[in-house]
Design a protein that fits this description.
Layout (H helix, E strand, L loop, with lengths): L3 H5 L13 H47 L6 H8 L9 H25 L5 H19 L5 H11 L4 H20 L8 H14 L2 E5 L6 E5 H15 L2 E5 L4 H17 L5 H7 L9 E7 L8 E6 L6 H18 L8 H15 L5 E7 L8 H14 L4 E2 L2 E2 H13 L1 E5 L2 E5 L8 H15 L1 H8 L3 E5 L2 E6 L3 H11 L8 E6 L1 E4 L2 E5 L6 E5 L18 H18 L3 H17 L4 H14 L11 H10 L13 E7 L7 H13 L8 E7 L5
Parallel strand pairs: 4-9, 17-18
Antiparallel strand pairs: 1-2, 3-10, 4-5, 6-12, 6-13, 7-8, 9-10, 11-12, 14-15, 15-16
Helix pairs in contact: 4-5, 5-6, 5-7, 5-23, 10-11, 12-15, 12-16, 14-15, 14-16, 19-20, 19-21
Organism: Rotaria sordida
Pfam families: HTH_animal (PF26215)
Protein name: Reverse transcriptase domain-containing protein
Length: 676
């Protein structure tokens, strides 16, 4: 996209036509236009030249890295990597492998519904599962084994004549389609992935997702190890344990701790069973690094992945318990999106914005790794006291604090074959860490919103990022921030102040001295024009959602028609780069206008009115699922599953439409195979 300055430059000025003759005036105006035209052409040529040179240098850098790593990539392998980390290739074999487990789970759910009605499911359930099994095997194009054929033939023999004819016709027609279609030779993506993994391993290279943009980043193993060593030495938050695996001891201690709480009646038997762990379901957490490729020197973000860690059940349970309480406590000073901030700013600016208005964003430096264990746990106790709670969902406050302390004190993990214990700060990756950091930050900042409100300003927070808009002098605000920095030695604030600022994905500025608020979409330096590729094997509704939400965001954020047009062109270009057809993009853009009753093309005259209607439209509230009436069923998605939902609901109506569970609504979800 060329810089906006190129098409905005205009070398023209007013000539007094009462003094100079008309021919001379026209000649001078033509000369001005020619100068403007020449400037634009020459500037554009220079811009294209510099962009081409940048592209050449970056391409050479990539080739150098690959050559240094001694990786010889084929054209097929290079094309595969260009599809990016989100790409999923068609994998009906994985879908077929999961079929048996999915059907067994579905059968148990249906049996449970019948049991709830105190009725036996009987033969219809067996026939439903058998017919569904045949349908899935046909869709996955997997040959039916003799064992399955015999089993299904017994059940099919119990069907009536019409059912058998209907089943044979449906399956015959599908098999005819498979026979008639000439199968194009497909790429063996699975083999390509295995070959790439082998090449990277031989070359001591790591292919990792970048920290923000989630595009592929190529790095050397020795660089990762060096930076990891520097980080561990710098933070002094990790104790080295050598080659000793603490997992068996940790499993025993976790279950013993929970049993002690049960015996002393701090928790109930049901709560004990909910939180206790089985040795065969547990793995030690591992540390990995996400490269911040957009920053100089490519620093790394440490993440401790503990999805099966021995304390993950407790951590997730406490987070689910405490997060709603925290959200309730901080709802007046917290924003969760740029859209929410736009609405608050618009209301405030109508009365308070003037030429003295300044914007300020404040970043809490390394918040997660700066909060000590004891103070972090105490902040949770403060929150529960602040809300005047003695119990939360049946748990005593003392029990919550004991469990929180246990989670924080037992962060063990492995890295590069060695074992470590995190002795201070919270683990990035543990669910409880975010809530604890939020609580700690809330009690640090409690005096700030009051001070800003007294100064007729606005104050909001998103995790460790603060936003302030106020009619103070820059010098006075900086003085206040210096004072706030002395509140707590564990929290250090870094401020950015000016007449324009970015916060979350929103760019905020004043257009003129009168203090007119302007906003548009902000893209961070880490932004890459990479979204889910259109040729990835994802359900169509996921792909439709991307251009829809992108355009809706543009209307909400762009305060002027011109910035909206600029953003639309960026979106279109980005989507085209990700293989989205232009017709598909246009359809989804029109869907946004249709949803918000915009029945004419947006233009300079009507944009403000229609945008205000979009801003005023109520946000869709998250609906709670009534699990007594809704049954969630997840099937693994592959290319042949497009027509599956309709066929599934037809089968469901056929066997259960007149049954005792006819009020149960089956909701189909998709489970994807692994992406790149």
């Amino acid at each position: 996209m060329p810089p906006k300055i190129i098409d905005k430059v205009d070398f023209s000025f007013k000539i007094d036509e009462s003094i100079i003759s008309q021919d001379e005036v026209q000649a001078m105006y033509n000369q001005m236009r020619q100068i403007t035209k020449d400037f634009r052409i020459q500037t554009m040529k220079l811009y294209v030249q510099s962009a081409a040179r940048e592209n050449e240098i970056l391409s050479n850098e990539i080739k150098t890295i690959i050559n240094e790593a001694n990786i010889q990539l084929t054209e097929e392998e290079h094309q595969l990597l260009r599809l990016g980390s989100k790409f999923i290739f068609n994998d009906p074999k994985t879908a077929a492998r999961r079929r048996i487990t999915v059907l067994a789970t579905l059968k148990r759910k249906i049996e449970k519904c019948f049991l709830h009605k105190k009725v036996s499911p009987g033969r219809p359930l067996q026939q439903f599962i058998a017919e569904l099994d045949v349908l899935l095997q046909t869709l996955h194009n997997v040959p039916t084994t003799r064992k399955n054929l015999h089993k299904n033939s017994v059940i099919v023999s119990q069907m009536n004549q019409n059912d058998i004819i209907e089943l044979i016709n449906s399956q015959a027609s599908q098999s005819q389609v498979f026979n008639l279609v000439k199968v194009k030779k497909k790429k063996n993506y699975g083999r390509l992935v295995k070959r790439l993994k082998h090449k990277f391993k031989l070359a001591n290279v790591i292919l990792q997702k970048s920290d923000k943009s989630k595009v592929f980043h190529l790095g050397k193993i020795e660089d990762y190890r060096k930076k990891s060593k520097e980080y561990i030495e710098k933070t002094q938050a990790y104790k080295y344990l050598g080659n000793e695996d603490r997992l068996p001891d940790l499993i025993q201690r976790t279950n013993k701790y929970l049993l002690d709480l049960r015996l002393t009646k701090w928790i109930t038997q049901k709560q004990y069973e909910l939180l206790s762990i089985k040795p065969n379901e547990v793995e030690l957490a591992h540390l990995y690094y996400s490269p911040k490729a957009h920053k100089s020197g490519t620093p790394q973000r440490p993440i401790i992945s503990g999805l099966k860690h021995s304390t993950i059940k407790i951590s997730k349970f406490l987070d689910d318990l405490l997060r709603p309480l925290f959200d309730k406590m901080t709802q007046e000073t917290t924003v969760t999106s740029g859209f929410e901030l736009v609405k608050k700013l618009n209301e405030w600016s109508k009365v308070n914005m003037n030429q003295n208005t300044i914007f300020c964003t404040i970043d809490g430096i390394d918040l997660y790794t700066m909060i000590p264990h004891v103070e972090g746990v105490l902040s949770l106790k403060k929150m529960l006291d602040y809300l005047k709670l003695k119990k939360a969902n049946g748990f005593k406050v003392e029990t919550i604090i004991r469990l929180s302390r246990f989670v924080m004190q037992n962060n063990y993990f492995s890295y590069d074959g060695q074992f470590y214990h995190q002795i201070r700060d919270g683990a990035m990756g543990s669910p409880l860490t975010l809530t604890m950091a939020n609580c700690y930050m809330f009690f640090f900042e409690r005096a700030l919103p009051k001070q800003i409100k007294n100064g007729v300003g606005l104050y909001f927070r998103y995790i460790d990022d603060l936003f302030i808009v106020i009619n103070w002098s820059t010098r006075y605000l900086l003085k206040q921030i210096d004072r706030w920095n002395k509140f707590d030695e564990n929290i250090k604030l870094h401020a950015n102040i000016g007449a324009f600022i970015n916060f979350l994905d929103l760019y905020i500025y004043m257009e003129n001295r009168d203090g007119t608020l302007c906003t548009t979409v902000y893209q961070k330096p880490s932004y890459e024009s990479y979204y889910l590729p259109f040729n990835s094997i994802h359900p169509l509704h996921m792909k439709k959602n991307i251009p829809f939400t992108m355009l809706l965001c543009a209307i909400r954020y762009c305060s002027t028609y011109q910035t909206y047009l600029d953003e639309c062109e960026k979106l279109r270009m980005t989507l085209l780069l990700n293989k989205y057809p232009n017709k598909f993009i246009e359809q989804q853009f029109n869907s946004v206008l249709l949803k918000y009753s915009i029945d004419e093309p947006l233009n300079m005259i009507n944009y403000d009115e229609y945008r205000q209607n979009v801003l005023d439209s109520p946000s869709k509230e998250h609906e709670r699922i009534d699990y007594d009436k809704v049954m969630l069923i997840h099937f693994t998605y592959c290319l042949s599953m497009k027509a599956f939902p309709l066929k599934f609901h037809t089968l469901w109506s056929k066997y259960f439409g007149e049954s005792p569970i006819n009020e149960i609504i089956p909701v189909l979800g998709t489970r994807n195979v692994k992406n790149l």
